[in-house]
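Task 17 of the worksheet. Students: predict the tertiary structure of the chain below and write it out as structure tokens. Keep your answer in the requested format; marks are given for formatting as well as content.
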Amino acid sequence: MTPTARHHFGAGARRRPSLRSRLATAAVRELVRPVLRLVPISPLALRAGSLVDVGARLLPVRTAVRVEPVRGEGVRGAVVRAAGVAEGFGAGALLYFHGGGFVAGGLHTHRRFAAELALATGLPVVQVRYRYLPEATVPESVRDCLAAYRWLLEQGAAPGSVVFAGDSAGGFLALSTAIAAATAQLPAPAAMVALSPWLDLDPTTKLAHRNAATEAYLPTAAFPRIAELGCTRDGHVDLTLSPVSGVLAGLPPTLLAACDDEFLRLDSEVMAERLTAAGVPCELHLWYGQIHAFPVVFPYLPESRALTAEIARFARAHIRPAAATAAA
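Model answer:
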């Protein structure tokens, strides 16, 4: 019998979020959701997506970090190190792919969370600035992320000390990049972490689920449209690009986190089942009363810090520093 994925329940399993979290969720539901539902998903409108990252420069980063630009052929990004994090990548690294629905986001939208991850794990966090719509299709985004992994290995990071991580569309990229690495015969990373990941391009089941109505702020109609713009082959959405449809055997241990009433919850549940069936160790963490990718949106909430601590635990449990990998 195939073992089931390990299930964990966030917010202390009491299903009642903190007051700060409830206030934050209410603000997003009442103020952000109505605005996002008015934004058209069109090639012209998508050209303004990168402006979101420009505006995110104003977000205060509470954790003191050093930020180093990544310069490499075909690779863009930044390395974020908290106090006490050593130079180089001998102890390991988190390779982080930001979310934004393949239409927005960047280094600054996720800098606060990257800083929290660096502090919690004691590892450098490499933020990848991949191309996205309308500049590039989703397969091209995956190629950019795979190039970033190659770059990190070239810098001396042992594959057994690297953790792929991402949220939302970045969760799609984390798993797709690991699948692409296997196809390219690159060594697998030590582990993967995906927060509120988008993993199935087919929206049919999700749109029919009750969570399509309980989603706090994401416009659910945007998902089919983005898939049409970024994942079309021969006039149809190529569902084989979905990570849930990929070859999963041989992938590293994976932590999936999702919220109980978010639109993308089903994607994490389906992926947990398929990873487990493929023999991949998997943890599925469900959080109650939170919003999509909440550690990124509100990194300083108690629940966000708790999930960040879980990610750090998971990373430390699976990485092997370069010296240990070489000895093996």
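Marker's comment: DSSP finds 13 helices and eleven strands in the chain. Residues 19-36 form the longest helix (18 residues).
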